[in-house]
Amino acid sequence: MLRRQRQIENCQKEISDIIETLERQKSSAAEEMTIIQWQLYGKYAGLVDAASEFASKSGITAENQPIFTVYNPKHVTNDDKDKLLKIILDDFKAENPKAEAMTFQQVRAVLESRYGVETRTIGNFFRRQLPSYETAGGNKKMMIVLKVSPERP
């Protein structure tokens, strides 16, 4: 019983240390955010206006920005993977309306470039999501067959 009590006490100390570290990170991030906002809206307000004007003229708008954001590329939850795969396939279908399939290499390239998620294989990364999609091809050139899908989540 004493051993278990010491384990619980150590666990509580560890949790309190983690909470303290996270609170320090949170306060540091809040301080940095106030400094950045002060610089953006005070010191560099003219540059921000010019950048937003340039973006609007070049076609970069809020609609063109990614709808989904991966907050931690090192760990993506299954719910996020569901949404992510659906968005990637829908975007590819919108960009390539005549395409019938998207290769795993293309999915991997989009994951790395747009969302910053690095993975060795798409089959392992989306192992719980892929059974609900039709796949084609062999070991070297696996593809996800594209079908018209309903609205994004």
Could you please describe the fold and organization of this structure?
- With 153 residues, the chain is mainly α.
- It has two domains: 62 residues; 79 residues, Arc Repressor Mutant, subunit A (Orthogonal Bundle).
- Helices cover 59% and strands 5% of the residues.
- The protein contains five helices and three strands.
- Strands 1-3-2 form a three-stranded antiparallel β-sheet.
- Strand 2 and strand 3 form a beta hairpin.
- The longest helix has 42 residues.
- The radius of gyration is 22 Å and the shape is flat.
Sum this structure up briefly:
The chain is built from five helices and three strands, in the order αααβααββ.
Task: Tag the structure with descriptive keywords.
2 domains, 5 helices, mainly alpha, 153 residues, 59% helix, single chain, Arc Repressor Mutant, subunit A, 3-stranded antiparallel sheet
Q: Taking strands numbered 1, 2, ... along the chain, how are they ordered across the largest sheet?
A: 1-3-2
Can you write the helix and strand succession as a string?
A: HHHEHHEE
The first-level CATH class of the largest domain is given as Mainly Alpha
User: How many individual domains?
Assistant: 2
Radius of gyration of CA atoms, rounded to a whole number:
22 Å
Enter the CATH topology name of the largest domain: Arc Repressor Mutant, subunit A
The dominant shape is flat
What is the percentage of strand-forming residues?
A: 5-15%
Q: What can be said about the biggest beta sheet?
A: 3 strands, antiparallel
Query: Got a strand count?
Result: 3
Could you list the spans in which at least 5 consecutive residues all have pLDDT below 50?
none
Helix fraction by DSSP (H/I, runs of at least 4): 55-70%
Separation of the first and last Cα atoms = 50 Å
Structural class: mainly alpha
SS field, number of helical segments: 5
